[in-house]
Amino acid sequence: MDFKIALIRGDGIGPEVVGEAVKVLDAVGERFGHTFTYTDVLLGGCATDAVGKSYPDGTAEKCKACDAVLLGAVGGPKWGSDRPAEERPETALLAIRRDLGLYANLRPAALRPAMADACPLKKETAEQGIDLLMVRELTGGIYFGQREKYQTEDRGMECADRMAYSEMEIERIGRRAFELARLRRKKVSSVDKANVLETSRLWRSVMHRLAEEYPDVAYEDVLVDNCAMQLVRAPGQFDVVVTENMFGDILSDEASMVTGSIGLLPSASIGDSAPGLYEPIHGSAPDIAGQDKANPIATILSVAMMMRYSFHLEAEASAIEAAVDGVLADGWRTADIAEAGVTPIGTKQMGDLICQKLRA
Ligand SMILES: NC(=O)C1=CN([C@@H]2O[C@H](COP(=O)(O)OP(=O)(O)OC[C@H]3O[C@@H](n4cnc5c(N)ncnc54)[C@H](O)[C@@H]3O)[C@@H](O)[C@H]2O)C=CC1
Ligand SMILES: CC(C)CC(=O)C(=O)O
Ligand SMILES: [Mg+2]
After folding, report:
1. Is the CB of 8 under 6 A from ligand 1?
2. What ipTM was estimated for this complex?
3. Chain segment 19-55, per-residue pLDDT in tens
Protein backbone atom coordinates (compact mmCIF):
# COMPACT_ATOMS: atom_id res chain seq x y z
CA MET A 1 0.00 0.00 0.00
CA ASP A 2 1.04 3.63 -0.49
CA PHE A 3 1.00 6.16 2.35
CA LYS A 4 1.81 9.87 2.40
CA ILE A 5 3.52 11.08 5.55
CA ALA A 6 4.12 14.71 6.53
CA LEU A 7 7.45 15.12 8.32
CA ILE A 8 7.78 17.95 10.81
CA ARG A 9 11.41 17.59 11.79
CA GLY A 10 11.41 20.69 13.98
CA ASP A 11 14.24 21.93 16.17
CA GLY A 12 17.05 20.65 18.39
CA ILE A 13 17.16 16.85 18.31
CA GLY A 14 13.94 16.77 16.24
CA PRO A 15 15.66 16.35 12.85
CA GLU A 16 18.03 13.72 14.29
CA VAL A 17 15.31 11.48 15.72
CA VAL A 18 12.99 11.92 12.72
CA GLY A 19 15.91 10.95 10.46
CA GLU A 20 16.19 7.60 12.25
CA ALA A 21 12.42 7.08 12.23
CA VAL A 22 12.37 7.60 8.46
CA LYS A 23 15.04 4.91 8.06
CA VAL A 24 12.77 2.59 10.05
CA LEU A 25 9.77 3.50 7.89
CA ASP A 26 11.77 2.63 4.79
CA ALA A 27 12.83 -0.69 6.32
CA VAL A 28 9.19 -1.48 7.16
CA GLY A 29 8.19 -0.55 3.62
CA GLU A 30 10.80 -2.94 2.18
CA ARG A 31 9.83 -5.80 4.45
CA PHE A 32 6.06 -5.51 4.10
CA GLY A 33 5.78 -4.11 0.57
CA HIS A 34 4.54 -0.59 1.35
CA THR A 35 5.63 2.71 -0.12
CA PHE A 36 5.94 5.68 2.21
CA THR A 37 6.35 9.06 0.55
CA TYR A 38 7.36 12.07 2.58
CA THR A 39 6.44 15.76 2.51
CA ASP A 40 8.59 18.04 4.65
CA VAL A 41 6.53 20.59 6.56
CA LEU A 42 8.20 23.56 8.23
CA LEU A 43 7.02 24.27 11.79
CA GLY A 44 8.66 25.55 14.96
CA GLY A 45 11.76 27.64 15.54
CA CYS A 46 13.17 26.61 12.18
CA ALA A 47 10.08 28.11 10.54
CA THR A 48 10.52 31.34 12.51
CA ASP A 49 14.08 31.54 11.20
CA ALA A 50 13.00 30.78 7.64
CA VAL A 51 9.78 32.75 7.22
CA GLY A 52 9.36 34.84 10.37
CA LYS A 53 6.61 32.81 12.04
CA SER A 54 6.60 29.43 13.73
CA TYR A 55 3.34 28.33 12.12
CA PRO A 56 3.53 29.30 8.45
CA ASP A 57 0.33 29.76 6.47
CA GLY A 58 -0.92 26.55 4.91
CA THR A 59 0.77 24.24 7.44
CA ALA A 60 -2.43 22.46 8.50
CA GLU A 61 -3.52 22.05 4.86
CA LYS A 62 -0.18 20.44 3.95
CA CYS A 63 -0.63 17.99 6.84
CA LYS A 64 -4.24 17.28 5.92
CA ALA A 65 -3.10 16.30 2.43
CA CYS A 66 -1.15 13.42 4.03
CA ASP A 67 -2.28 10.19 5.70
CA ALA A 68 -0.31 10.85 8.91
CA VAL A 69 2.12 13.33 10.43
CA LEU A 70 5.42 12.50 12.14
CA LEU A 71 6.83 15.23 14.36
CA GLY A 72 10.24 15.33 16.07
CA ALA A 73 10.13 18.20 18.54
CA VAL A 74 10.10 21.97 18.48
CA GLY A 75 11.48 24.72 20.66
CA GLY A 76 14.68 25.91 22.22
CA PRO A 77 16.27 28.86 23.98
CA LYS A 78 16.80 30.70 20.71
CA TRP A 79 13.03 31.21 20.44
CA GLY A 80 12.30 31.91 24.11
CA SER A 81 9.40 33.56 25.91
CA ASP A 82 10.73 37.07 25.17
CA ARG A 83 9.72 36.54 21.50
CA PRO A 84 6.26 37.48 20.22
CA ALA A 85 3.80 34.57 20.38
CA GLU A 86 3.78 34.01 16.60
CA GLU A 87 7.55 33.41 16.63
CA ARG A 88 7.50 30.91 19.49
CA PRO A 89 7.67 27.22 18.51
CA GLU A 90 5.27 26.14 21.25
CA THR A 91 2.55 28.39 19.76
CA ALA A 92 2.85 26.42 16.54
CA LEU A 93 2.71 23.07 18.30
CA LEU A 94 -0.54 23.97 20.04
CA ALA A 95 -1.94 25.42 16.79
CA ILE A 96 -1.29 22.31 14.71
CA ARG A 97 -2.86 20.11 17.39
CA ARG A 98 -5.93 22.39 17.45
CA ASP A 99 -6.21 22.76 13.67
CA LEU A 100 -5.99 19.01 13.07
CA GLY A 101 -8.56 18.39 15.84
CA LEU A 102 -6.18 16.11 17.74
CA TYR A 103 -7.95 16.03 21.09
CA ALA A 104 -6.72 12.61 22.23
CA ASN A 105 -3.05 12.14 23.07
CA LEU A 106 -2.20 8.50 23.80
CA ARG A 107 1.02 8.11 25.76
CA PRO A 108 1.82 4.50 26.62
CA ALA A 109 4.38 4.04 29.37
CA ALA A 110 5.56 0.45 29.60
CA LEU A 111 8.62 -1.07 31.17
CA ARG A 112 10.10 -2.86 28.17
CA PRO A 113 11.26 -6.44 28.88
CA ALA A 114 14.97 -5.68 28.43
CA MET A 115 14.74 -2.50 30.50
CA ALA A 116 13.75 -3.88 33.91
CA ASP A 117 17.13 -2.86 35.32
CA ALA A 118 16.61 0.74 34.14
CA CYS A 119 13.56 1.13 36.37
CA PRO A 120 14.64 3.42 39.21
CA LEU A 121 11.99 1.98 41.54
CA LYS A 122 12.36 -0.82 44.08
CA LYS A 123 13.08 -4.22 42.50
CA GLU A 124 9.77 -5.66 43.81
CA THR A 125 7.88 -2.75 42.23
CA ALA A 126 9.57 -3.23 38.86
CA GLU A 127 8.87 -6.97 39.01
CA GLN A 128 5.13 -6.25 39.25
CA GLY A 129 5.44 -4.72 35.76
CA ILE A 130 4.46 -1.29 34.45
CA ASP A 131 2.15 -1.02 31.47
CA LEU A 132 -0.09 2.00 31.49
CA LEU A 133 -1.68 4.15 28.83
CA MET A 134 -1.99 7.83 29.61
CA VAL A 135 -4.88 9.37 27.68
CA ARG A 136 -4.28 13.10 27.77
CA GLU A 137 -6.83 15.66 26.60
CA LEU A 138 -4.84 17.70 24.08
CA THR A 139 -6.82 20.63 22.69
CA GLY A 140 -8.45 22.19 25.74
CA GLY A 141 -7.71 23.36 29.25
CA ILE A 142 -5.22 25.91 30.42
CA TYR A 143 -2.86 25.62 27.42
CA PHE A 144 -5.68 26.90 25.20
CA GLY A 145 -7.37 29.33 27.59
CA GLN A 146 -7.32 33.09 27.40
CA ARG A 147 -4.09 34.67 28.63
CA GLU A 148 -4.08 37.98 30.43
CA LYS A 149 -1.29 40.29 31.47
CA TYR A 150 -1.98 43.61 33.16
CA GLN A 151 -0.49 46.13 35.54
CA THR A 152 -2.13 46.43 38.97
CA GLU A 153 -2.10 49.56 41.09
CA ASP A 154 -0.39 48.05 44.09
CA ARG A 155 0.96 44.58 43.23
CA GLY A 156 3.00 45.12 40.08
CA MET A 157 2.22 43.06 36.98
CA GLU A 158 -0.39 40.34 37.22
CA CYS A 159 -0.97 37.48 34.77
CA ALA A 160 -3.77 34.97 34.40
CA ASP A 161 -4.27 31.81 32.34
CA ARG A 162 -7.83 30.62 32.03
CA MET A 163 -8.61 26.92 32.32
CA ALA A 164 -11.91 25.92 30.75
CA TYR A 165 -13.47 22.59 29.81
CA SER A 166 -16.86 21.85 28.29
CA GLU A 167 -18.89 18.69 28.83
CA MET A 168 -18.40 17.89 25.14
CA GLU A 169 -14.61 18.04 25.43
CA ILE A 170 -14.58 15.88 28.54
CA GLU A 171 -17.04 13.35 27.19
CA ARG A 172 -15.15 12.70 23.94
CA ILE A 173 -11.81 12.10 25.68
CA GLY A 174 -13.52 10.05 28.38
CA ARG A 175 -15.18 7.83 25.81
CA ARG A 176 -11.80 7.24 24.13
CA ALA A 177 -10.35 6.19 27.48
CA PHE A 178 -13.14 3.71 28.22
CA GLU A 179 -13.00 2.26 24.70
CA LEU A 180 -9.22 1.85 24.94
CA ALA A 181 -9.54 0.25 28.39
CA ARG A 182 -11.87 -2.37 26.88
CA LEU A 183 -8.97 -3.42 24.64
CA ARG A 184 -6.59 -3.61 27.62
CA ARG A 185 -7.01 -4.59 31.28
CA LYS A 186 -10.40 -2.85 31.62
CA LYS A 187 -9.54 -0.24 34.21
CA VAL A 188 -9.81 3.56 33.96
CA SER A 189 -8.24 5.91 36.50
CA SER A 190 -9.49 9.44 35.98
CA VAL A 191 -7.12 12.06 37.32
CA ASP A 192 -8.38 15.47 38.42
CA LYS A 193 -8.20 18.05 41.18
CA ALA A 194 -11.91 18.04 42.02
CA ASN A 195 -11.23 19.05 45.62
CA VAL A 196 -10.25 22.50 44.29
CA LEU A 197 -11.04 23.13 40.62
CA GLU A 198 -14.47 23.70 39.06
CA THR A 199 -13.23 22.23 35.75
CA SER A 200 -12.27 19.07 37.64
CA ARG A 201 -15.69 18.80 39.27
CA LEU A 202 -17.28 18.89 35.82
CA TRP A 203 -14.64 16.42 34.60
CA ARG A 204 -15.49 14.04 37.42
CA SER A 205 -19.25 14.23 36.92
CA VAL A 206 -18.93 13.48 33.19
CA MET A 207 -16.55 10.59 33.90
CA HIS A 208 -18.98 9.12 36.44
CA ARG A 209 -21.79 9.26 33.87
CA LEU A 210 -19.56 7.46 31.35
CA ALA A 211 -18.49 4.87 33.93
CA GLU A 212 -22.15 3.81 34.19
CA GLU A 213 -22.20 3.22 30.44
CA TYR A 214 -19.14 0.96 30.72
CA PRO A 215 -19.98 -1.36 33.64
CA ASP A 216 -17.41 -3.90 32.40
CA VAL A 217 -14.60 -1.36 33.01
CA ALA A 218 -13.40 -0.73 36.57
CA TYR A 219 -13.33 2.97 37.36
CA GLU A 220 -11.66 5.14 39.98
CA ASP A 221 -11.07 8.84 40.65
CA VAL A 222 -7.53 9.83 41.59
CA LEU A 223 -6.46 13.30 42.68
CA VAL A 224 -3.54 14.52 40.61
CA ASP A 225 -1.13 14.97 43.51
CA ASN A 226 -1.85 11.45 44.73
CA CYS A 227 -1.44 10.16 41.15
CA ALA A 228 2.02 11.74 40.94
CA MET A 229 2.95 9.88 44.11
CA GLN A 230 1.33 6.57 43.09
CA LEU A 231 3.23 6.60 39.79
CA VAL A 232 6.43 6.27 41.80
CA ARG A 233 5.06 4.10 44.62
CA ALA A 234 3.14 1.49 42.62
CA PRO A 235 2.74 2.29 38.91
CA GLY A 236 1.64 -1.30 38.21
CA GLN A 237 -1.82 -0.42 39.59
CA PHE A 238 -2.60 1.74 36.53
CA ASP A 239 -4.05 0.59 33.21
CA VAL A 240 -5.67 3.57 31.40
CA VAL A 241 -5.12 6.95 33.05
CA VAL A 242 -7.30 9.69 31.59
CA THR A 243 -6.66 13.30 32.43
CA GLU A 244 -6.74 16.88 31.26
CA ASN A 245 -4.10 18.57 29.16
CA MET A 246 -1.61 19.99 31.66
CA PHE A 247 -1.89 17.17 34.22
CA GLY A 248 -1.26 14.67 31.40
CA ASP A 249 1.72 16.62 30.12
CA ILE A 250 3.38 16.56 33.53
CA LEU A 251 2.40 13.05 34.62
CA SER A 252 3.55 11.48 31.36
CA ASP A 253 7.06 12.91 31.75
CA GLU A 254 7.06 11.44 35.24
CA ALA A 255 5.87 8.07 33.93
CA SER A 256 8.67 8.09 31.39
CA MET A 257 11.37 8.10 34.04
CA VAL A 258 9.69 5.29 35.92
CA THR A 259 10.01 3.18 32.78
CA GLY A 260 13.62 4.18 32.04
CA SER A 261 13.92 7.40 30.06
CA ILE A 262 11.94 10.09 28.31
CA GLY A 263 13.88 8.99 25.22
CA LEU A 264 11.79 5.81 25.09
CA LEU A 265 8.19 7.02 25.19
CA PRO A 266 6.11 7.56 22.05
CA SER A 267 2.75 9.18 21.53
CA ALA A 268 -0.17 9.28 19.13
CA SER A 269 -2.42 12.32 18.82
CA ILE A 270 -5.72 11.52 17.21
CA GLY A 271 -9.07 13.13 16.58
CA ASP A 272 -12.20 12.09 14.77
CA SER A 273 -10.68 12.32 11.31
CA ALA A 274 -7.30 11.78 9.61
CA PRO A 275 -4.47 12.55 9.82
CA GLY A 276 -3.14 11.50 13.21
CA LEU A 277 0.07 13.04 14.47
CA TYR A 278 2.83 10.94 16.00
CA GLU A 279 5.64 12.30 18.14
CA PRO A 280 7.91 11.36 21.03
CA ILE A 281 6.74 12.80 24.35
CA HIS A 282 10.05 14.59 24.82
CA GLY A 283 11.04 18.04 23.63
CA SER A 284 13.87 19.31 21.48
CA ALA A 285 16.56 18.61 24.14
CA PRO A 286 18.80 21.58 23.25
CA ASP A 287 21.40 20.33 25.75
CA ILE A 288 22.26 17.33 23.55
CA ALA A 289 21.19 18.56 20.10
CA GLY A 290 23.58 17.99 17.20
CA GLN A 291 25.78 15.57 19.16
CA ASP A 292 24.39 12.22 18.00
CA LYS A 293 23.38 11.56 21.63
CA ALA A 294 19.58 11.56 21.44
CA ASN A 295 17.70 8.31 21.89
CA PRO A 296 15.59 7.83 18.72
CA ILE A 297 13.50 5.01 20.21
CA ALA A 298 10.60 7.26 21.34
CA THR A 299 10.20 8.51 17.77
CA ILE A 300 10.64 5.05 16.27
CA LEU A 301 7.97 3.67 18.62
CA SER A 302 5.77 6.61 17.55
CA VAL A 303 6.06 5.21 14.01
CA ALA A 304 4.79 1.89 15.39
CA MET A 305 1.80 3.76 16.81
CA MET A 306 1.27 5.37 13.39
CA MET A 307 1.14 1.91 11.81
CA ARG A 308 -1.38 0.78 14.43
CA TYR A 309 -3.70 3.79 14.79
CA SER A 310 -3.59 5.52 11.39
CA PHE A 311 -2.89 2.65 8.98
CA HIS A 312 -4.32 -0.33 10.92
CA LEU A 313 -1.14 -2.29 10.17
CA GLU A 314 -0.78 -4.34 13.36
CA ALA A 315 1.91 -6.72 12.04
CA GLU A 316 4.07 -3.76 11.00
CA ALA A 317 3.58 -2.06 14.38
CA SER A 318 4.51 -5.24 16.25
CA ALA A 319 7.55 -5.78 14.02
CA ILE A 320 8.90 -2.32 14.92
CA GLU A 321 8.31 -2.93 18.62
CA ALA A 322 9.97 -6.35 18.41
CA ALA A 323 12.98 -4.83 16.63
CA VAL A 324 13.36 -2.21 19.37
CA ASP A 325 13.06 -4.87 22.09
CA GLY A 326 15.55 -7.07 20.23
CA VAL A 327 18.19 -4.34 20.07
CA LEU A 328 17.68 -3.51 23.75
CA ALA A 329 17.88 -7.22 24.65
CA ASP A 330 21.20 -7.39 22.81
CA GLY A 331 22.42 -4.79 25.30
CA TRP A 332 22.70 -1.71 23.07
CA ARG A 333 22.06 1.53 24.92
CA THR A 334 22.08 5.25 24.08
CA ALA A 335 23.54 7.51 26.78
CA ASP A 336 20.20 8.20 28.51
CA ILE A 337 19.66 4.50 29.28
CA ALA A 338 23.24 3.26 29.62
CA GLU A 339 24.14 2.02 33.08
CA ALA A 340 27.53 2.77 34.59
CA GLY A 341 30.24 0.84 32.75
CA VAL A 342 28.23 0.46 29.52
CA THR A 343 29.62 2.36 26.52
CA PRO A 344 26.70 4.15 24.91
CA ILE A 345 26.01 4.19 21.19
CA GLY A 346 24.81 7.20 19.22
CA THR A 347 21.47 8.15 17.67
CA LYS A 348 22.39 6.92 14.19
CA GLN A 349 23.80 3.58 15.33
CA MET A 350 20.67 2.90 17.38
CA GLY A 351 18.54 3.63 14.29
CA ASP A 352 20.74 1.40 12.12
CA LEU A 353 20.57 -1.51 14.57
CA ILE A 354 16.77 -1.32 14.74
CA CYS A 355 16.61 -1.31 10.91
CA GLN A 356 18.95 -4.33 10.79
CA LYS A 357 16.63 -6.25 13.15
CA LEU A 358 13.65 -5.30 10.99
CA ARG A 359 15.37 -6.58 7.85
CA ALA A 360 16.68 -9.79 9.48
N1 LIG B 1 6.46 18.14 21.49
C2 LIG B 1 7.40 19.06 21.53
O3 LIG B 1 7.84 19.54 20.51
C4 LIG B 1 7.90 19.51 22.86
C5 LIG B 1 8.72 20.60 22.90
N6 LIG B 1 9.26 20.98 24.08
C7 LIG B 1 10.20 22.10 24.00
O8 LIG B 1 11.53 21.56 23.96
C9 LIG B 1 12.43 22.50 24.54
C10 LIG B 1 13.30 21.83 25.59
O11 LIG B 1 12.47 21.44 26.68
P12 LIG B 1 12.97 20.66 27.97
O13 LIG B 1 12.18 21.13 29.09
O14 LIG B 1 14.45 20.72 28.04
O15 LIG B 1 12.48 19.16 27.73
P16 LIG B 1 13.13 18.02 26.83
O17 LIG B 1 12.17 16.90 26.83
O18 LIG B 1 13.54 18.55 25.51
O19 LIG B 1 14.45 17.59 27.62
C20 LIG B 1 14.42 17.23 29.00
C21 LIG B 1 15.65 16.38 29.31
O22 LIG B 1 15.49 15.10 28.71
C23 LIG B 1 16.55 14.82 27.82
N24 LIG B 1 16.00 14.17 26.60
C25 LIG B 1 14.88 14.54 25.95
N26 LIG B 1 14.72 13.76 24.88
C27 LIG B 1 15.72 12.88 24.87
C28 LIG B 1 16.10 11.83 23.99
N29 LIG B 1 15.38 11.48 22.91
N30 LIG B 1 17.22 11.14 24.28
C31 LIG B 1 17.95 11.43 25.36
N32 LIG B 1 17.65 12.42 26.23
C33 LIG B 1 16.55 13.15 25.97
C34 LIG B 1 17.17 16.16 27.47
O35 LIG B 1 18.53 16.03 27.09
C36 LIG B 1 16.95 16.95 28.76
O37 LIG B 1 17.99 16.70 29.66
C38 LIG B 1 11.56 23.64 25.09
O39 LIG B 1 11.59 24.68 24.15
C40 LIG B 1 10.18 23.04 25.18
O41 LIG B 1 9.15 23.98 25.06
C42 LIG B 1 9.05 20.31 25.24
C43 LIG B 1 8.25 19.21 25.24
C44 LIG B 1 7.55 18.75 24.06
C1 LIG C 1 4.08 23.01 24.29
C2 LIG C 1 3.95 21.89 25.30
C3 LIG C 1 2.55 21.68 25.69
C4 LIG C 1 4.56 20.66 24.71
C5 LIG C 1 4.69 19.53 25.68
O6 LIG C 1 5.37 19.60 26.68
C7 LIG C 1 4.03 18.28 25.37
O8 LIG C 1 3.09 18.22 24.59
O9 LIG C 1 4.42 17.27 25.99
MG1 LIG D 1 5.54 17.73 27.74
Report:
1. no
2. 0.99
3. 999 999 999 999 999 999 999 999 999 999 999 999 9
Strands 218-223 and 187-192, sheet pairing: parallel
* Nearest ligand 2 atom to alpha carbon 253: 9
Residue 117 annotated as lining a ligand binding site: no
Pocket test for ligand 2, best of 81, 93, 256 (most atoms within 8 A of CB): 93
Which residue minimizes the CA distance to atom 7 of ligand 2? 249
The predicted pLDDT at position 250 comes to 98
Starting at the earlier edge strand, list the strands of the sheet with 240-243: 35-40, 2-10, 68-73, 276-280, 266-270, 104-110, 131-137, 240-243, 187-192, 218-223
Indicate if the pLDDT at residue 208 is higher than 90. Answer: yes
Q: Are strands 240-243 and 218-223 parallel, antiparallel or unpaired?
A: unpaired
User: Does the beta carbon of 301 lie inside 6 Å of ligand 1?
Assistant: no
Q: What pTM was computed for the model?
A: 0.97
**275 and 5 Cβ atoms separated by less than 8 Å:** no
CATH numbers and ranges of domains, the chain: 1-108+262-360 (3.40.718.10), 120-258 (3.40.718.10)
Select which of 239, 249, 309, 336 is catalytic: 249
Q: Where are the beta strands (DSSP E) in the chain?
A: 2-10, 35-40, 68-73, 104-110, 131-137, 147-151, 157-161, 187-192, 218-223, 240-243, 266-270, 276-280
